[in-house]
Amino acid sequence: QTVLQGIILLPLRVICITFILLLAWLSASIATFCQPGRGFLPLKGWRRRMIQTTLSGLTRTAYFVMGFQVKVKGKVASLPEAPIFVAAPHSSFFDAIICALTGMPSIVSRAENLSTPVFGTILSSLQPVAVSRQDPDSRKNTVAEITRRALSRGQWPQVI
Fold first, then answer.
1. What angle do CA 12, 14, 16 make, to 5 degrees?
2. Does the global pTM surpass 0.85?
3. Alpha-carbon span 3 to 1, nearest angstrom
4. pLDDT > 80? residue 37
């Protein structure tokens, strides 16, 4: 009976997750369409709220469809309390749960990830700090950008 459930549930889950992923891509595309100062200025107003609410909700829904139920104990630190917070070890797809639960903060990511179809658009909407592995000054530039965002007095979202 469990094999039969798996045969039925797996395709349904894949279809639902694909649909959720496409909705997330559409939301990210709308929020970043004709964005002024693309990548250099923080998203503001309806664009930022759209990313926070839509992508956070869709990410939570995707994990629920996959069979994960996440319960938060305590309170997430606000931007003034913690402009930077760390999630470690960040080596799996579970990092997206942390992003969804914390209001879709900016992340630090490889620059190559931004050119990935569908995921690159979604990632770009989070306004990541892009790290170039080809640039010898990348480490210094990344630290400088994280510091600049952390000291922006709330103009930029939290950095994870």
1. 70
2. no
3. 5
4. no
Residues contacting residue 129 through CB under 8 Å, at least 6 positions apart: 106, 107, 108, 109, 142, 145, 146, 149, 159
Residue 12 sits in which domain range? 1-151
The answer to the question of residue 158 being in a domain is no
Type of residue numbered 79: L
Is 105 inside a domain boundary?
yes
Q: State yes or no: pLDDT of 8 exceeds 80.
A: yes
Look at the chain and report how many structural domains it folds into. 1
pLDDT digits (tens, 9 = 90+) for 64-117: 998 888 888 888 888 888 888 887 766 677 788 888 888 888 888 888 888 899
Does a cis peptide bond (omega within 30 degrees of 0) precede residue 89? yes
Q: How far is CA 92 from CA 2, 66, 87, 97, in A?
A: 27, 15, 11, 10
Q: Tokens 């080596």 sit at which residue?
A: 91
Q: Which two tokens stand for residue 69?
A: 């139920």
